[in-house]
Amino acid sequence: MSDLLTGEIVRWTRIEHGVWRLYAAATDRGLCYVGTPDMPFEQLESWVRARIRGAELVRDDAALAPYVRELAEYMDGARRTFEAPVDVRGTAFQQAVWQALLGIPYGETRSYSDIATLVDKPAAMRAVGAAIGANPVLVCVPCHRVVGKSGAITGYRGGLDMKSKLLELERDRQA
């Protein structure tokens, strides 16, 4: 995970796989964005404008093919972990939270307080929630695996329906 530079090219594609319809984007260093299902292209444009100032958005289905393949395999239940690199930027705290999310095993969940403890900020559950909400790479950085302390399905940038579907997919594919 690293800082993104201005003036670079952000390549994007639209993923249409089964019930999933969403945009994904990558820099030369890795996947930088996985969007919310059924949202317009403008959501991606707005995200890039705000986070990678001066970047040029270029549709490049071929360049995104390895990421699309891994996401499709995950959506089909044939993949549990992602190998393709991610290129996400954020504060040191956000980076620590996102790194903690990568440690949550497939099919398991953790609470916000679990993540706060993992990043050595046990009283910072709201800040952890904000960092999780700022995760730009849905699915691959598995923020959907974070639930309320009671196990309740709580907020998710991709919407509670997407979060529920992802958790159900993982639960159904547990061996």
Can you describe this structure?
Keywords: DNA damage, DNA repair, Methyltransferase, Transferase. Residues 92-171 form the Methylated-DNA-[protein]-cysteine S-methyltransferase DNA binding domain. One of its GO terms (molecular function) is methylated-DNA-[protein]-cysteine S-methyltransferase activity. This is Methylated-DNA--[protein]-cysteine S-methyltransferase. The protein has 175 residues and is α/β, with parallel strands linked by helices. It is built from six helices and six strands; from the N terminus they run βββαβααβααβα. It has helices at residues 41-51, 61-75, 92-102, 112-118, 125-133, 160-172; strands spanning 9-17, 20-27, 30-34, 56-59, 110-111, 146-147. It has a four-stranded mixed β-sheet, with helices on both faces. It has a two-stranded parallel sheet with strand order 5-6. Helix 4 (112-118) crosses helix 5 (125-133). The longest helix has 15 residues, at 61-75. The chain is globular.
List keywords for this structure.
single chain, 175 residues, alpha/beta, four-stranded mixed sheet, two-stranded parallel sheet, 6 helices, 6 strands, globular, methylated-DNA-[protein]-cysteine S-methyltransferase activity, methyltransferase
Give a quick precis of the structure.
With 175 residues, this protein is an alpha/beta fold. 38% of the residues lie in helices and 17% in strands. 30% of the residues are buried.
